[in-house]
Amino acid sequence: MSKVCIIDHPLIQHKLTFIRDRNTNSKDFRELVDEVATLMAYEVTRDLKLEDTEVITPIGPCKTKIISGQDVGVVAILRAGLGMIDGILKLIPNAKVGYIGIYRDPETLQPVEYYCKLPVDLAHREIVLVDPMLATGGSAAAGIQAIKERGGKKIRLMCLIAAPEGIRTVQERHPDVDIYVAAVDECLNSHGYIVPGLGDAGDRLFGTK
Predict the structure, then answer these.
(1) pTM of the model
(2) For residues 149 and 118, is the Cβ–Cβ distance under 8 A?
(3) Which residues carry out catalysis?
């Protein structure tokens, strides 16, 4: 079974409070999501392997470390995942970026993929799949499946807020994918929103309804 890592750093929890606040405007909401994504990326990438190298400082030779041949890819589930990409790229500017568009069929309630553009060398990358809200887990599980079908092998899921139902869905369908969140909330309501959550992340990011 995959692990669930709750990243409870004080700075993240402080900023998450303002992300949740319904009075936070779209500009501030976008900036806060971007900042939290950067902070979370430190923990999500904590176990990247290192190898020895040597550089010459202004004083002389220095034995030090670099990331060991593990390129990173960041994949956003459209559209809300877009708000988390730049925050990660601030730390890992050479990461390749991909996008997966998924909507829920109104009749079957099943996720439907309508767009997918991913780095061509998925098999050789550590993939971080991002989506602010892990609610039912259907979109995240479908996004992970899309990455696997195109060759991705090492995948991590990064969300701001999760519901227990969404965590269970991802763990059941993809027990090899670890989940990183800033908070796990109470439950889902009858409309599939996380309670207390933060509302619709996409609408709040882009000022739509």
Answers:
(1) 0.92
(2) no
(3) 104, 108, 200, 203
